[in-house]
Design a protein that fits this description.
There is one protein chain. The chain is mostly helical and 95 residues long. The protein folds into two domains: 58 residues, no CATH class; 34 residues.
Length: 95
Amino acid sequence: MRIAGLVESKIDWFVQRIEFTLAALNSPEVVDSLRSWVTERVIPKSKRSKALLAAVAKLKLSEMTGEEWAAILAITASAFGAGAGAAKWLPNLFH
């Protein structure tokens, strides 16, 4: 089941089969399960990403070291190279 993606590793969130009807989706079990997932998984992850974004936003270009500039340029060049490579490679997949 882990290989099929039905259970996340080390998380133990199990897939629950239900009817796809309004009544089934509004059942207390489904609502509580979704609320628990959002509270325990979604909200903590969204708070982490904001902290990282806030740290990056405070970065001043004038205070960056040469190594930091090199890292940013390397990441930018890698992203550009990956995009250019994908632009050449992907159209060949659909012929």
